[in-house]
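A reminder from the course coordinator: this example appears on the midterm review sheet, so study it carefully.

Given structure:
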């Protein structure tokens, strides 16, 4: 089983670390931007390619909207959420502490 971990990166590093730790304890392979190799696809297409490898989407939401790549009108994080739903992945979403 593989879990795609999605969130903004600058503010939620500790939460992402925690999600990866829980995945490891459950024998679930975490997929996240920390381990993305250079694919030459751009942020959105690269993330979507990784979402397709996952069995479940884990979203961590807080105060930041995130990076909007040129040519898109939504953040990479929101597009990951949408793409996971379009591809039938269960989406587990968590709201981080407001102080995060």
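Designed residues:
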């Amino acid at each position: 089983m593989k879990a795609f971990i999605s969130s903004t990166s600058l503010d939620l590093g500790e939460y992402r670390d925690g999600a990866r730790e829980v995945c490891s304890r459950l024998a679930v392979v975490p997929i996240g931007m920390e381990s993305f190799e250079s694919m030459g696809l751009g942020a959105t297409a690269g993330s979507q390619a990784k979402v397709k490898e996952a069995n479940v989407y884990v979203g961590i939401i807080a105060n930041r909207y995130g990076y909007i790549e040129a040519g898109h009108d939504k953040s990479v994080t929101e597009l990951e959420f949408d793409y996971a739903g379009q591809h039938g992945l269960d989406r587990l979403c968590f709201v981080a502490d407001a102080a995060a």
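The chain has one domain: 2-95. The longest helix spans residues 13-25.
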